[in-house]
Write a structure and sequence with these properties.
Largest sheet: 6 strands, antiparallel, barrel
Number of domains: 1
CATH superfamily: predicted glycosyltransferase like domains
CATH class: Mainly Beta
Shape: globular
Structural class: mainly beta
Strand order of the largest sheet: 3-4-5-8-7-6
Number of strands: 8
Radius of gyration: 17 Å
Strand content: over 45%
């Protein structure tokens, strides 16, 4: 992709996939409760990456962006079972981008610490 030009010279391209937090590849089984149309349903999914702000979640059901979820999972290297609220922000087939909503500072810190361990293991 070539950079656009202005009277002052080339304009640097902007990375379209800029993220607030770095993603870390993992495999985590996730119990998912979906709230949709006044009802709820339970599913089992698998997170293929995680960051302090969310995860990529594979489900055998396609959910639309904006769908609210409750996520329950064990994070690697931690003994605590997480129970977090999330919302679908994007979807590509059965892969869903989930943003964590209202995670406590302790939960964010545990996820952050685990991501640092992932960095060390690379």
């Amino acid at each position: 992709m070539s950079a656009a030009k202005t009277a002052r010279g080339p304009v640097p391209s902007v990375k379209q996939d800029a993220r607030k937090w770095e993603r870390h590849t993992t495999s985590i089984l996730v119990d998912v409760t979906v709230f949709l149309n006044g009802g709820r349903s339970n599913h089992r999914g698998e997170a293929s990456d995680i960051s302090r702000g969310g995860m990529r979640l594979f489900l055998t059901r396609e959910l639309d962006p904006g769908t609210s979820l409750v996520l329950e999972f064990l994070i690697p290297y931690q003994a605590v079972r997480f129970n977090l609220c999330g919302v679908i922000r994007n979807r590509d087939g059965f892969n869903h981008g989930v943003e964590f909503i209202n995670a406590t500072p302790d939960q964010e810190e545990m996820i952050d610490r685990t991501c640092k361990v992932f960095d060390l293991l690379r």
